[in-house]
């Protein structure tokens, strides 16, 4: 069994239109070779572990709190280029680069796919105050291989990445802003995992 690749994304929300980018995500078929499994969320590379935990945040103006208008989030990630193929895909800091690669020795070895999932706590917290993690969602560029979604507060499936391929996208995060919450800085962590059985 291959060890799971993990990446963390910390989300913070300060209690008050979604950005668009014309880039296209894609799935790249790669040559069979030595077993390889990697995942990048935000800043990363294909050749080393990266302990960076990128922060995604927003500020909601007091007059807009709970009005149901989604508020775009920005990140501290500077990753815009696919490190494997070298092309520019994302528009940082409005978008967060995410990529997974799964390689086996041939077309018959190992599982036919690796599974990308994300885990979050039920809520983001600010002291004793809570905000449901389901208030945070993301849009994925170009309708690509890593789909748009909303955190559920638990472990959730995102997609499968086929054997001997790499898939990447840019995620634009947003706060749904559908409930009134007390002022504060709400923090929570999303942990992305790529697992090949």
Keywords:
seven-stranded antiparallel sheet; six-stranded mixed sheet; mainly beta; 197 residues; elongated; 45% strand; 15 strands
Question: Taking Cα atoms only, what radius of gyration do you get, to the nearest Å?
Answer: 17 Å
Q: Quick check: average pLDDT?
A: 86
Q: DSSP helix count? A: 0
Shape: elongated
Beta-strand proportion: 35-45%
Order of helices and strands: EEEEEEEEEEEEEEE
Overall number of domains: 1
Distance between the termini: 5 Å
Give the biggest beta sheet: 7 strands, antiparallel
Helix content: under 10%
Low-confidence sequence ranges: 7-23
Helix/sheet category: mainly beta
Tally of extended strands? 15
Give a brief outline of the structure.
The chain is mainly beta and about 200 residues long.
Fold and architecture overview:
The protein has strands at residues 5-14, 26-29, 36-41, 54-57, 71-72, 74-75, 96-103, 113-119, 123-126, 129-132, 136-140, 149-150, 155-162, 165-175, 185-195. It is mostly beta strands. The chain has one domain (5-195). The chain is elongated, with a radius of gyration of 17 Å. Helix content is 0%, strand content 45%. The strands form three sheets. Strands 2, 3, 5, 7, 11, 12 and 14 form a seven-stranded antiparallel sheet that branches.
